[in-house]
Every structure is written in C-alpha cells, then in structure tokens.
Write a structure and sequence with these properties.
By secondary structure, the protein is α+β, with helices and mostly antiparallel strands. About 15% of the residues lie in helices and about 60% in strands.
Length: about 90
C-alpha cells in the first residue's frame, strides 16, 4: 500500500481518487456536491443524510432536492442551513 501511495504522490493524484475519501464542495448556500459517497441513508425536504467511507454527512435546510446523482457524486440544492459530519468510530 505504501508503494501505491508514493506512486500517487509522484503523479500528484488527489487523495479522494486513490482511497475513496469523501470530498465535500460547498458551491453556495444553496448547493453542495459530495464526491465518493456510498449511499443515501435518509432523504426529506428538510434533512438529507449521506453515507461515506469515513462517516455520514447530514445536511439540514429547506426545500432540499437531489439534483445530480451519479455513481461517484451527488449534488444537493435547496436552502442549506447547516452541514454536520459524523465520523465513523474505528473499532
């Protein structure tokens, strides 16, 4: 695994590509993009919970919608009030 990490560093590859770490991009108060997600755990107009390899991402707001869903990323639009990260506990 160390050789792979060293090789990726030489190529200047982003961490999220190599090991599926989530990348959260806040585009505005009305839009967020989450890359490398595993699944949607909850979806309501006022609350969305997204599962990732490292934990969950909770988005609170109003009129939240899933605008873009691909195998690798998910776009959320609406009035975003807060974003909360819950890191998985290592056993």
């Amino acid at each position: 695994m160390k050789k792979k990490n060293r090789f990726n560093q030489m190529l200047e590859m982003p961490r999220e590509i190599d090991n599926k770490e989530p990348k959260i991009t806040i585009i505005s108060f009305d839009e967020i993009l989450i890359e490398n997600y595993k699944g949607i755990l909850e979806y309501e107009e006022f609350f969305i919970k997204i599962d990732t390899e490292k934990g969950t991402v909770n988005i609170n707001g109003y009129k939240l919608t899933l605008e873009q869903i691909t195998e690798d990323d998910i776009g959320i639009k609406g009035t975003i009030k807060s974003i909360e990260l819950e890191k998985n506990e290592v056993g």
